[in-house]
Amino acid sequence: MSGWKGDKMTTSPITIYIPRDAAALSVGAERVVKAMQDEAKKRGVDLKIIRNGSRGMLWLEPLVEVVTAKGRVAYGPVTQKDVVSLFDEKFFNGGAHALGHGLTEEIPFFKNQERLTFQRVGMIDPLSLDDYIAHGGFVGLKKALAMTGADIVQTVTDSGLRGRGGAGFPTGIKWKTVLNTHDEQKYIVCNADEGDSGTFADRMLMEGDPFTLIEGMIIAGVAVGATKGYVYLRSEYPNAHKIFGEAIQIAKKAGWLGKSVNGSGKAFDLEVRLGAGAYICGEETSLLESLEGKRAIVRAKPPLPAIKGLFGKPTIINNVMSLATVPWIMANGAKAYADYGMGRSRGTLPIQLAGNIKRGGLIEKAFGVTLKDVIETYGGGTASGRPFRAVQVGGPLGAYFPASLLDTPLDYEAFAAKKGMLGHGGIVVFDDRIDLARQARFAFEFCAKESCGKCTPCRIGAVRGQETMDQVIAGETAKLGLVKELCTLMTDASLCAMGGLTPIPVISALEHFPEDFKPAHKLAAE
Amino acid sequence: MASQIVNELKYLEGATLPILHALQENFGYVDRRAVPMIADALNMSKAEIYGAITFYHDFREAPAGKRVVKLCRAEACQSMGCEDLVHYLETKQGIKIDSTSPSGHLTVETVYCLGNCALGPAALIDGALVGRVDKELLDAVCAERPHERMEG
Ligand SMILES: NC(=O)c1ccc[n+]([C@@H]2O[C@H](COP(=O)([O-])OP(=O)(O)OC[C@H]3O[C@@H](n4cnc5c(N)ncnc54)[C@H](O)[C@@H]3O)[C@@H](O)[C@H]2O)c1
Ligand SMILES: Cc1cc2nc3c(=O)[nH]c(=O)nc-3n(C[C@H](O)[C@H](O)[C@H](O)COP(=O)(O)O)c2cc1C
Ligand code: SF4
Ligand code: FES
Ligand code: FES
User: Fold this and answer.
1) pTM score > 0.90 for this model?
2) Which ipTM score applies to this complex?
3) What are the residue boundaries of the structural domains of chain B, listed by start?
4) CATH T-level fold of B67-142
């Protein structure tokens, strides 16, 4: 396209990116798209809008990027009201504007990351296979298709990749169990239940680079001889459901899924199933029950899902991040991945910085960065501007840490050593208005509401814990002994980690913030 | 209509949830009268199907209000004041969380995390994700007024 448009000569259309990521949509990305289209038409500017994933700088959403000769230039957060002035300042040529941030990839928050799993998220059109392939897509799968299953599994093992769902179990070893368990039918199940508060990496990847997850699942299937995959996606993610569903259709049409993956003669098919609003369905055996169409009551382990999983068949069940990291490892080699990280935590962690934080979003970093660095350097402190008081890492079953523990590096073992949990990498920041006694009560309440009900320590313990915390908050601090006893019982006797880990937030609150459990605190607060 | 949905989906592996989701999407809730039909189609007991409906928070056994607000009350949104919003709805708008307003106009429900934890408080309003929810926005929803942050 070229020619005279209005008063200026445009040789080619101007290309801008506006995310279709749910977080960007939640603050008006769709309205910005409409306003941009209208304004461009009015001014005769030939504008091509690509809907990308999010770059992960969520405080800048909606982030509008313009393609220039120097690279992509960022403006944000843009509202529909800013559109006229953006055109006035010729943002489409990269013009200066109050909302301008210069080159996207030079913004410190973004620049100082190691983006492997998220290499393409925000960069490409998530539903363009051409874009995907042009940016390194399917290189890993093609290599895998030329390898034996055992060699693929060995590569994953050598990379040091550990389960990103939270438990950190070595992915290669899990795959090996499935590889060595013989059966006609095996399954690959992707855990996309992402129930933890403070986490959204799975969602962002599925919306921003869905083919990566598809590729990772195919590689898993090829490795262990599984021909069918399921993605169990939480129903709270309608936008991810839509985008990922479209991606599967596109991949099928292009022959990447189906009877013969890219002509290899190996079959692999994929289906998405929606959850139905139960946190426990993220626990792998509960998830499998749910996929089988039952109430999601946790199964006792053993047998492990790797041996008897979906419909009793050997099953790889992995988190979205674990599976979506495999294509990078296959493409770049196990060593390249293992070169990142610290101790036994190899590679990178997609960190999700959330809660009361000035600059929240997704930060993919090699393991080893400290909490303090994440919260202060990347996050810029609290959103409210009030003093920081606590951070909860690892979701609702994770510990509350005070300022004195902020030098803890993000590393599975370092967190365990401080009686915390890295989990799925969610970091939730609180300012000084947090009341840790209430948070402890909430931990029990959440467990009581979300327990599958199979075992008494969890089902009854959580309800009693909530009631007892109510009494403590009302001033009966002597009841704290009972709270601790309940915690010991739940830790020791629960069947799964739901009941077993609920004491972590409770005990950490008590240990690090004892002042919040004293009656004087209540009086002072009123 | 309901039987058509059941018949179309019953061949899936583990068809219970897909069927329940499809019924709720079409009718707004899962009618108890559909239980025997589903049980029959899936070769499961009525107790198993009914058990599934009650186990999962998503499924309703009665229609919701005309508008549905699913307000996130998990930790990240707590840190941004979602409990103030719950209190505000109850005291200023007379709408109790996890219930439907007497007029049948509005249902407000608790959910735990919508994956928008850096832009909280978050809510799904009639299925659309909204970030940085505030009192003014809730006022508009309660008053059935349009609001610029809910379009598009
Ligand atoms: N992502 C989220 O939203 C979320 C929510 C709640 C909890 N979690 C996390 O879940 C964790 C607990 O999960 P869990 O109970 O599944 O942990 P787990 O330790 O029982 O299992 C971890 C994984 O390793 C597998 N495994 C263990 N031994 C194996 C072997 N020998 N061979 C093959 N596979 C083997 C298990 O099947 C499972 O997939 C917590 O630490 C928490 O961080 C995550
Ligand atoms: C209560 C509970 C909830 C869980 N929720 C999730 C979840 O939402 N997503 C996830 O990937 N793993 C979740 N897990 C962990 C899974 O049980 C399992 O360890 C994981 O899916 C294995 O995949 P990985 O090895 O790739 O991490 C949960 C565990 C428990 C106990
Ligand atoms: S600990 Fe709780 S969630 Fe886990 S099996 Fe027991 S009752 Fe179910
Ligand atoms: S079933 Fe009785 S304690 Fe688990
Ligand atoms: S905690 Fe509210 S959206 Fe995640």
Assistant:
1) yes
2) 0.97
3) 2-55, 67-142
4) Glutaredoxin (3.40.30)
